Amino acid sequence: MLGDREFHSVELAAWCVEKRVEFVFRLPKSTTVKPSDSSIFTRLDHLPQSPGITEQYLQIQVTQNRGFGKHNLVLRQKRTYRQSNSDDAWYLMTNLVDADQTLKAYSSRFSIEALFKDYKSGGYHLEACHADLRRFNALLVLIAIAYLISTIQGRCIRKKQVQHYIARVTEPQRTTNRHSNFWIGLYGRLWIEPLNLWPTLATQLMALKPQKRPFFQRGLNAIVLIQSAL
Questions:
Q1: What is the reported pTM?
Q2: Residue 202: which residues within 8 A CB-CB, separation 6 or more?
Q3: Strand 42-43 to strand 90-94: parallel, antiparallel, or no bridges (unpaired)?
Q4: Which of these, 169, 180, 33, lies nearest to 115 by C-alpha position?
Q5: Binning pLDDT at 50, 70 and 90, where does residue 193 land?
Q6: Helices (H) and strands (E) in the chain, counts
Q7: Residues 54-85: pLDDT tens digits?
Q8: CA separation for the pair 54, 75 (Å, rounded)
Q9: Angle, to 10 degrees, between the axis of helix 181-197 and the axis of helix 213-229?
Q10: For residue 186, what is the enclosing H or E element?
Q11: Nearest CA to 156 among 179, 192, 193, 185?
């Protein structure tokens, strides 16, 4: 079970231990811990840490709430490379004993960020529906069908290598795609719709820039390929 900072909870961690569920929860830097029996409680961001060096504490008390047992803690802050500088450290509470396994498990959660965006601001705004249980279940079925269709269309657009006309799918220093196949399929139709609505106006505007004709032609070819995928 993986959880970001808003899901950190010693109660949930204790439940995972009771149910023998492996977990990695990220903690806010303001969380207080007791690194050893002889030490006092201190904030996580006050613990010794060096960029690029992984620190691990085994079986320590996390937060001053009693009765929830002890857990392992892994600290990791990115090393500074060239112009990049990250002060945002990872403070991970876990029942795993291997620090590398803990870091690998938590880093895998970033692959689902695109899916979260699809269901929130990037697509259906599911959290804002405020529907009752019956309507919510019906809405989930409709979303699942629509999501599948848009994802298949986005995959076809990627295969035709024209996804960069719809969105900036990659960014410097970003290891995962900025937009999912769903997002590309959903907004691919919106990208080509203006040309379908105002073809005459678009042709007149392109005629004003004859020196840009090769680029316009590439865009028109991309539109044909995108339409064939929808």
A1: 0.56
A2: 194, 195
A3: unpaired
A4: 180
A5: confident
A6: 7, 7
A7: 888 888 888 776 656 788 888 888 766 555 55
A8: 6
A9: 120
A10: helix 181-197
A11: 185
Phi-psi region at 23: left, alpha or beta (left = phi > 0; alpha = psi -120 to 50)? beta
- The confidence score (pLDDT) of residue 174 equals 58
How many residues does this entry show for the chain?
A: 230
Residue carrying structure tokens 């848009």: 150
Structure tokens belonging to residue 113 = 């960020």
pLDDT attached to residue 186: 77
The structural domains of the chain, ordered by start, are 2-110 (3.90.350.10), 120-229 (no CATH)
- First and final C-alpha spacing in the chain: 37
DSSP SS3 for 74: strand
Tell me which amino acid residue 59 is: Q
Residues in CB range of 84: below 8 A, 6 or more apart: 78, 173
Name the residue type at position 137.
N
User: What tokens does 137 get?
Assistant: 């279940």
Q: What six digits make up the tokens of 208? A: 């004003």
